[in-house]
Each structure stands twice: as structure tokens, then as C-alpha cells.
Specification:
Length: 136
């Protein structure tokens, strides 16, 4: 009986620790994204570099999972975002956005990242997009 209780308690503690670790990872994603502003330094669509179409844009991410798209220091569009450190994914949505901002919408796989940059890719059907965000 005692052995069974110890096993059950151990499983509960382990599950709690895993949940705490997952929460810490998510908190770090939020902290990294919300600390400062970001700019798009590289954007390709089907291998064609269209980075210049994003010239003048900066992005400010907030802990309430909203994001501002700022162009030439003027708020152009508010959107939403989220990230998942376990699956190495992020997504954004700028509802009703026009080109080029609408290209950011959807789920992205994070290919490489650090505290100061994120490189991500997205494939929908035959279209493949890549982007790099750098912290200002």
C-alpha cells in the first residue's frame, strides 16, 4: 500500500514538474518576443526575395498575445500572435491585412532562433515562405 502511494505521489510530482517546465518555456517565448521591437530582415516567397516589400515595418509583440505592425512609425494594423516552444511553431493573424502584411498570417515553423532573431518557414500547398525577424 505504501509503495502504491509513493508511486502515485511520484507521478503527481513528476507531472507537476513537467507542467512547470512547459510553463517556464512558454514564459521565455513570451519574454523573448515582447522585449523590444522586431524588424523583417529577410522574406522569400517560393525562393523569390521580397524583403524590400516589408521596408519600414517594425513589429511590437505584447504578452496579451497581440502584435502591432508599425510602418514608418505609424501603427498600420493590430493583430494576434502565439508561440509554442514544444512544437517550435508560431502563428500570427492580421485580419483584413493587405499585401505584404497578409503574407505573415498563418502558422510558421521556427527553424532557428535566439534571443535576437527568429528564422521561420511556412508551406501551404505549393507555396513556401521563409522569413527572418531581428530584434532592434
Amino acid at each position: 500500500m505504501k509503495k502504491g502511494i509513493i508511486i502515485i505521489l511520484s507521478l503527481i510530482v513528476f507531472a507537476s514538474c513537467k507542467k512547470t517546465v512547459d510553463n517556464v518555456k512558454e514564459d521565455l517565448v513570451v519574454k523573448a518576443m515582447t522585449d523590444g521591437e522586431w524588424t523583417l530582415t529577410k522574406f522569400t516567397m517560393n525562393g523569390v526575395d521580397i524583403t524590400t516589400d516589408f521596408s519600414g515595418y517594425k513589429f511590437k509583440y505584447y504578452s496579451d498575445k497581440t502584435v502591432d505592425a508599425i510602418k514608418n512609425n505609424i501603427l498600420e494594423k493590430k493583430g494576434t500572435w502565439d508561440g509554442n516552444s514544444s512544437s517550435m511553431t508560431t502563428w500570427a493573424n492580421f485580419t483584413g491585412a493587405s499585401y505584404p502584411l497578409n503574407l505573415i498570417n498563418g502558422s510558421w515553423h521556427i527553424d532557428r532562433n535566439s534571443w535576437i532573431y527568429v528564422e521561420a518557414s511556412q508551406t501551404i500547398g505549393t507555396d513556401t515562405k521563409t522569413m527572418r525577424l531581428d530584434k532592434l
